[in-house]
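Re: the pair you flagged

First of the two:
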Amino acid sequence: MEDIVNVQNVSLKYQSPNGEIEAISNIDFAVKPAEFVSIVGPSGCGKSTLLSVIAGLLPPTAGKVYVNGELVTKTSPMVGYMLQKDHLFSWRTIWQNVTLGLEVQKCKTKENTDYVKDLLRTYGLYEFKDKYPAQLSGGMRQRAALIRTLATRPEILLLDEAFSALDYQTRLAVSDDIYRIIRKEKKTVIMVTHDISESISMSDRVIVLSGRPAVIRNTHEISFAGPDVPPLARRELPEFRGYFNAIWKELDIHV
């Protein structure tokens, strides 16, 4: 199976008031279609910077990124980006929010809006489509944000701390919810998170970055009893603690 994302020896430096800073250095990995890969690392190590390079929002100082065999030089409709906060517009209904991408890309056809309606029905939000974001719970808003991202049918989802704004209990439930949606839609995912447990419970593979400048310290293939074990159930399995302890030791969080 060919790689859908290929990050080749990517480095990025930027200017600060104190001079040039190297954020990431010689990052090299690939992702298969429908694979769920998490990236963890110490705070401020450059995880989100790496995601922005993959998305085409930041040009790398060195190296290249390929998406579906095409060199990344700008943003692509193949890639959907979901940020920490849901960024739903308070003055737009849920329906108007989830179809915003279709408006921006000028592809608000009957076929595409029917697809969004199906997503809303499937994931329990159709009856709330005429409500406003303030009338929804945090978990429902996050589901709406994911549906907005899926509406334009990207093949790859980039999740940047996508659940961190939620309280712990809601976060656990939403992780299960969104994992189910992503698996059903057969999307390829690269997720940045500072939460080791979250990365292990949701991923096929976890890439551990060092402190800045970030380099790949190790990669862990995550394997449980079966691919359909949901994130919450994975946390209860005996393999979970072994993965957690190994990644924890590699993170250098006390340095």
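Second of the two:
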Amino acid sequence: MFTILGSQKPSIFKFSDTRVEDYFFEKLDKKREHPSNLDLLGQDMIDAGADIGSGTPYGSALIKIGQAQQRLGAAEREFVRSAMTTYVTPLKRFLEGDMKTIMKERKILENKRLDLDACKSRLRKARSMESQANAETELRISQAEFDRQAEITRLLLEGISSAHANHLRCLSDFVESQATFYNQCQQFMVDLQKELSSSTNLARGGKGAYPGLYPSSPSPSDMPLNSLPDDKKRARVLYNYEAYDSSELPLTADEVIVVSPLPVPDADWMMGERGGQKGKVPMAYLEILN
């Protein structure tokens, strides 16, 4: 008992010296009163995509990526909540409860040991019979108090093993929550890659995400059955376009329409025709085929 509680501290008490709990409290024990960086990034990307236009490939991609960032932010918050419940809170409860009690009782035991040492010293220095008798009485009392406090501390220390087992289970739950979080993040990004690849035709002709930047020749199926008037041409739509009013014609990527100059020529706009529909269309969204 003297070996355990002498000048060498038991290893359990060195836990507070390593400050492992500080790391977890700093990283996980924080109330998120404001949006996370992922939430802010996602919202900014969504707002930018809406400003550019959800019907454009770039605007649509910004919105999709922004939404994915927000899903990542939500997953991060769920992981933090789970980590708090499964690990941080039990650890904090132990450190602020049982651990404080153990440290308090151990401090009392150290004081009792100092008192006992002082009584032994007085007994060694006693010269008269009366002083020896008094010193022996004090020694017996001090020894009894020390033994009682040592038993209390011993019982508390014996409970450490069960506390360790409980925290080991909590630590396993924490690792499981973290693994779930990273798996969710990976799945979000895989889904996002598939969605972007599908919506922008990343593999189309090896031209990348924006095929309209690389003019291509029409396939035989795109050739007109009948020749068009000289002032009209066929054009392939490069990107989706939402009409802003009734004077404009909405467009769908990859469809072929007939275009002609406006009555009042405009370098940025032409008159588009699809079946019986007519309306202004932006030149930047078209690839003239003939």
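Residues 160-200 form the longest helix (41 residues).

-B.
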